[in-house]
Amino acid sequence: MTRVSVPAEMLVWACERAGWDCEHLAAHIPQLPDWIRGDPHPTLKQLEKFAKATHTPFGYLFLPNPPEERLPVPDYRTVRGGREDRPSPDLLETLYTMQRRQGWLRESLVENDAEPLDFVGCARLSDEPDAAGREMRRALGLGGGWAAEVGTWQDAVSALRRAIEQLNVMAVINGVVGNNSHRKLSVEEFRGFALTDSYAPLIFVNGADAKAAQMFTLAHELAHVWLGSEGLSGFEGLAPEGTDVEDWCNQAAAELLVPARELRARWMGVRRQQEPFRTLARIFKVSPIVASRRALDLELVDRRTFFAFYEKYVNRERARAATRSGGNFYNEQNTRVGELFASHVLRAAMEGRIGFKQAYGLTGLRGGAFEKYAKRLGADLP
User: Fold this and answer.
1) Rounded to an integer, what distance in angstroms lies between the CA atom of residue 290 and that of residue 239?
2) Do the beta carbons of residue 352 and residue 195 sit within 8 Å?
3) What would the pLDDT profile of 251-294 be if each residue is shown by its tens digit?
4) 53 and 150 housed in the same domain
5) Of 142, 355, 370, 126, which is closest to residue 256 (Cα–Cα)?
6) Is 202 helix (H, G, I), strand (E, B) or coil?
């Protein structure tokens, strides 16, 4: 039986990287304390199991010292007033997967003489964010009162995501790593991110978040594309704080989803209700936090009213356990992979520009699952 020597600090680092202490993992891998002491060393098969359990790239375990893993994009997170010191394996893997997809699509589009998208990076921080929000709304083809006419929160999120993809922006919503339901993405770590590119911009929304929050994150990340400023977002709410970039994107997204003109027209009819912000939230299909912050920005309420509601709402939401049921696997691929990206991959595979093995890797779908999803998109695979 061949055993391999692994530095003890690498084993400890892998546990901490996954967000656990060694005692927790030892309950599942009883030999771990012995490996850390070096008596005995793990077998190759045991080490592979350990790497899988901690979501650690296998080769990392043989390094003499833990690597410094940095986020590959700027960090604009303001969750709980601070930023995470170490990105989780789930976040890193998600970011790397989206970067690979973006890189492949960009190369494919350039090779096929596609034109760059003129709206990517068309705005500046010195521009009025409300004007950018109105321009995004016009580009998306969203008419006045569109959200009020949509029946459910889910339908509103789906409609906005489809409208974004019609601009040739990949819009991905996923609450887990790939299709692994055991690796749920943390809303406390991040809400979404944008990867800007003039040919293949991509926005990602943490699907573990509430639907109302997903609406705002979609619009917020689209504002990042308009600004040409990629990065990771993790706003907890919309309290008046954060970076210049995040504040600008928040304001542009708020105008996109809750136009000032429409809100002022609705305000007189709801202002004396017991919960006016919840009423506005249902009308515009946004969270009550977005509705209340928008009212503050438009000076319809004062800061005391906003912060009183903000604190009450946030405390109530934190105390409420989130329960979500799973959906249809193949329907979820429209958001987890995105129809825009999947269609390009399918076309490339059917035209022989890439092999089906590469198509499986790009979409995260294998064999029969890939074929079934392709049929749902209208493709007739050979």
Assistant:
1) 10
2) no
3) 999 999 999 999 999 999 999 998 999 999 989 998 888 899 89
4) no
5) 142
6) strand
Q: Which residue from 90, 303, 253 is spatially nearest to 177, judged by alpha carbons? A: 90
Domain range enclosing 151: 79-319
- Answer whether residue 110 is part of any domain: yes
Residue 322: pLDDT band by 50, 70, 90 thresholds?
A: very low
122 plus 36 within the same structural domain: no
- The yes-or-no verdict on residue 326 having pLDDT over 60 is no
Instruction: Examine the domain organization and report whether 140 and 257 are in the same domain.
Output: yes
- Domains contained in the chain, number: 3
- Characterize the bridge pairing of strands 202-206 and 231-233: unpaired
User: What residues pair up with 206 in beta bridges, in sequence order?
Assistant: 174
Q: How many CB atoms lie within 10 A of CB 143?
A: 9
Q: Quick one: 343 exposed, middle or buried, by C-beta within 10 A (0-12, 13-18, 19+)? A: middle
Give the pLDDT band (50/70/90) at residue 152: confident
Q: Please state, in angstroms and rounded to a whole number, the distance separating the CA atoms of residues 187 and 210.
A: 9
Give pLDDT, residue 321: 41
| C-beta of residue 189 within 8 angstroms of C-beta of residue 232 | no
CA distances from 360 to 329, 342, 370, 373 (A): 16, 10, 7, 11
Contact (Cβ atoms closer than 8 angstroms) between residue 344 and residue 338: no
Which residues lie closer than 8 Å to 35 by C-beta, 6 or more apart?
A: 6, 8, 11, 41, 42, 46, 50
- Supply the pTM of this predicted model: 0.86
- In this prediction, residue 153 carries a pLDDT of 81
Query: 170: which strand partners?
Result: 202
DSSP letters along 39-97, please?
SSPPBHHHHHHHHHHTT--GGGGGSSS------SS-B---GGGS--SS--HHHHHHHHH
Q: Is 90 exceeded by the pLDDT of residue 1?
A: no
